[in-house]
Every structure is written in structure tokens, then in C-alpha cells.
Amino acid sequence: MKPLIALVGRPNVGKSTLFNRILRQKSAIVDSTPGVTRDRHIMPGEWQGKQFLLMDTGGYCAANDVISSSMIEQTLTAIRDADCVIFLTDVRSGLTYDDLEISKLLQRTFQNKQIFFAVNKVESPQLTIDAESFVSTGFTNPYFLSAKDGSGVADMLDDILESL
Ligand code: GDP
Ligand code: MG
After folding, report:
1. Domain 4-163 in this protein, CATH class
2. Quick one: which of 97, 121, 140, 158 has the most CB atoms within 10 Å?
3. pLDDT digits (tens, 9 = 90+) for 26-76
4. What residues are in contact with ligand 1 under a 6 Å CB criterion?
């Protein structure tokens, strides 16, 4: 069985963009249209010769109209099935209530699961400084990424595949 890596986080942090970046293909629909990505949100990938499955989550929700409990429900289901988790946040919007809810959920419920905490959209020195404050989630070793331009993604993947 190939290990399963789940990508979780609230809507619009860039999960589908990162999914596409990691798989180097346009398989997930970035602008979450309800229903569209449902049957394609687990895709095989390869990094440094190691194979894995990557799961995008939340792409099948209406982007700006998500009920928090359903987001939490999806996140829980995704994580239970996964061997490890990428928890993605967005430096441009800052930390939100939903980010903190997911943080608490991960820390309380999944203490034995490897969680890679990443701050996305970090594309300038100022945003790097802003991203430092995301350690207030309790995740003290954040990866700073840009799913859009790819920076930081390789370093995180090295660590993830190493851990599996
Ligand atoms: P999801 O809802 O978490 O799957 O987020 P999407 O991947 O659909 O991205 C939401 C929005 O953020 C889109 O407009 C993306 O183009 C944008 N976005 C995603 N990743 C980045 C990034 O690394 N940098 C910037 N500046 N924008 C990004
Ligand atoms: Mg998405």
C-alpha cells in the first residue's frame, strides 16, 4: 500500500493549488466548484523515487459558504485515513477562527499522527516575518511555502517522505 498524505485546512488557503503543485499537474480544480473535484481528490504522486497518494480535501464545498462543522467533519475523516497530514494555513489572510479550530482538533485528537504544519502564500520578506507569528497555533516548526511559485515545497516533501 502506498502511504496516504492528507492535505487539510480551511477553504482558500491554497490546498488544491498545493495538490497540483505536488503532483505537477492540473488534476484538482482550484476554484472550488461544488461537486467537481469529488471523484478526483486522491491522486498518486512520486517524490525522490518514493510513491504516495495525496488527498485534497474540501474542494467539493462551496468556497465561501462552508459550515464550520462540515469542514471539521471532512477534516476528521481525511485525517483518520491518512498516514500523515499537511495542515495548510494562509499568511495573506492571517490566522482565522477556523485555523485555530483545526489546530486544536489536530493537537487533541491526533497526537500520534505526523502533522506537517505549513504557511502558504509566503512570497515576500514581509510575509515571511508575518508567517513567524503562526507558531501561536502551537505548531512550532512551520514550513513556509508558496504553492503558487513552488518555493518551500521541496523541503517539506523531503521531510514528509523521510518520515513515512
Ligand atoms: P483551497 O480552497 O484551499 O483548495 O484553495 P485554492 O487552491 O483553491 O486557492 C484559493 C486561492 O488562493 C486561489 O485564488 C489561488 O490562486 C490562491 N493561491 C493558492 N496558493 C497560493 C500561493 O501560494 N500564493 C498566492 N499568492 N495565492 C495562492
Ligand atoms: Mg480546493
Report:
1. alpha beta
2. 121
3. 555 555 444 444 434 888 999 999 999 999 887 444 444 455 677 777 778
4. 9, 11-17, 30-32, 58-59, 63, 120-121, 123, 146-148
pTM of the model: 0.88
9 alpha carbon to ligand 2 midpoint, in Å? 9
Task: State the distance from the centre of ligand 2 to the C-alpha of 89, rounded, in angstroms.
Answer: 13
Residues annotated in a binding site for GTP: 9-16, 56-60, 120-123
Q: Cell for 18?
A: 498545493
How is the chain split into domains, by residue range?
4-163
Q: How many CB atoms lie within 10 A of CB 83?
A: 17
Between helix 153-163 and helix 15-23 the angle, nearest 10°, is 80
Interface predicted TM-score (ipTM) of this complex, two decimals: 0.99
User: Which strands make up the sheet holding 84-90, listed edge to edge?
Assistant: 42-47, 50-55, 4-8, 84-90, 114-120, 143-144
Instruction: Please give the number of the atom of ligand 1 that sits closest to the Cα of 9.
Output: 3
Q: What is the dihedral of CA 69, 95, 141, 163, to 10 degrees?
A: 30
